[in-house]
Specification:
- The chain has about 400 residues and is an alpha+beta fold.
- It contains 17 helices and 12 strands.
- It has a single domain, classed as Cytochrome p450 (Orthogonal Bundle).
- Helices cover about 50% and strands about 10% of the residues.
- The protein starts with 8 loop residues before the first helix and ends with a strand.
- It binds protoporphyrin IX containing FE.
Length: about 400
């Protein structure tokens, strides 16, 4: 019988061994500890993500302890029971996503490119004299926070506050939240609500060229987006966009350190940058799993799944499925077929994918420009992450110009 135990330290270091055993031995696995079904095959994960008729993103539908916890959390959340894009199904999802994606187009994101380059430049300048630094604290963590804060229109003086709120909220993506994590997230949400409410009022009085002003403007055009929905979306951006992008950069650095030939190849030919970034996303996905709730009793690969049961599509595992990817354990920046599931799929496909790709492109380009060698430093790395997120909190590196 295949066992899935994400609580052992070896899983945090390398989850892919356990995924591989499950994929061959028990691809639709019932985890008693997680009270969930764990999917590790590409085709199954793909199916779940696309099938909105049978699988919900709304945790309130879950049966058992998980459903009770989500309903309780929603009841006691300072934000109230307001819908967030990520956790709502069509048709509400379709309405929200249509309004939001009007303002979050790849074109609008592309316009951010020069500013992201400037921010990246400033961050690299701060470590210019160093030959050893923490990749996460110096570059991978601040870049996405500053970009999202600027996108929303938040002044630079409040950035630090933002990072703290964002960390506390991201901690709750774990399946088993500690009491302390929940409480800290609630405190952070309260502070964020108070901050954003004032901010939305200010933008209503005098709009500027930022996302909050655009949402307020959409309201004045008679499009339905309530104040609470603007708040919920602003908070979602912090949770969904910061740690994920930090993880993409950190996981990419480790992949390059372990594959110095890939580092040299891209340094010599920037045309390889896009395929390198897609391969980082596939090889060591920042988001490892996406959660759904079965809406109906159904059968998957001969296993009976009951309505209300939690299903985790482990996209990190799907990305290593040899049925879909040739030699999945190899980091191959020249991979031609790379339809990874790291940004999800279907109606909830990551809204921030163009932004995440752009930030990573800008940062890696500057890294290749500035350094000829990058290696792991002697001091210890620290892994962060949860079952669903994979990344580092500390990644000391040594560089040569
Ligand atoms: C490498 C970085 C990122 C990864 C790997 C990632 C991954 C994902 C995944 C897997 C989903 C689908 C969740 C589901 O189906 O339940 C998602 C949704 C989402 N992401 Fe990202 N994300 C990243 C960066 C960002 C950024 C930078 C932003 C915004 C600034 C963002 C905003 C969102 C939003 C708003 C959703 C919800 C979309 C919806 O439900 O319709 N993400 N992301």
């Amino acid at each position: 019988m295949s066992i899935f135990n994400p609580f052992v330290p070896s899983f945090k270091i390398n989850p892919y061994l356990q995924y591989s055993r499950l994929r061959t031995g028990d691809p639709v696995h019932r985890s008693m500890a997680l009270q969930s079904w764990i999917l590790t095959r590409y085709e199954d994960c793909l199916h779940i993500l696309k099938d909105v008729e049978n699988f919900s993103s709304d945790g309130r539908y879950a049966s058992g302890d998980i459903g009770r916890a989500v309903r309780e959390q929603r009841k006691t959340s300072p934000l109230g029971d307001v819908d967030s894009l990520l956790t709502v199904d069509p048709p509400t999802h379709t309405r929200l996503r249509n309004i939001i994606s009007r303002e979050f187009t790849p074109r609008r994101v592309e316009l951010l490119s020069p500013r992201i380059e400037e921010i990246s430049h400033e961050l690299f300048n701060e470590i210019n004299e160093l030959d050893e630094f923490d990749m996460i604290g110096s570059l991978a963590l601040p870049l996405p926070v500053i970009v999202i804060a600027e996108l929303l229109g938040i002044p630079a003086s409040d950035r630090q506050l933002f990072k703290e709120w964002s960390n506390k909220l991201a901690a709750t993506t774990d399946v088993f939240n500690s009491e302390q994590a929940i409480q800290e997230a609630q405190e952070a949400t309260l502070e964020l609500i108070s901050y954003f409410s004032d901010f939305i009022d200010a933008r209503r009085r005098s709009p500027e060229d930022d996302l909050i002003s655009a949402f307020v403007d959409a309201q004045s055009e008679g499009i339905q987006l309530s104040n609470d929905e603007i708040l919920a979306f602003s908070i979602l951006l912090l949770v969904a966009g910061n740690e994920t992008t930090t993880n993409l950069i950190g996981n990419g650095i480790i992949a390059l350190i372990n594959n110095p030939k890939s580092f040299s190849a891209v340094k010599e030919n920037f045309e390889l940058l896009p395929s390198m970034i897609e391969e980082i996303l596939r090889f060591d996905s920042p988001v490892q799993g996406v959660v759904r709730i079965a809406k109906n009793d159904l059968s998957l690969q001969g296993k009976d799944i009951s309505a209300g049961e939690v299903v985790m599509a482990m996209v990190g595992a799907a990305n290593h499925d040899p049925e879909q990817f040739a030699k999945p354990e190899f980091f191959d920046i020249n991979r031609l077929q790379n339809k990874h599931l790291s940004f999800g799929l279907g109606p909830h496909f990551c809204l921030g994918a163009p932004l995440a790709r752009l930030e990573a492109t800008v940062l890696f380009k500057e890294l290749f420009d500035r350094f000829s060698v990058i290696e792991g430093a002697r001091s210890d790395v620290e892994r962060g992450g949860t079952l669903l997120l994979r990344g580092f909190t500390k990644l000391p590196v040594q560089v040569q110009k």
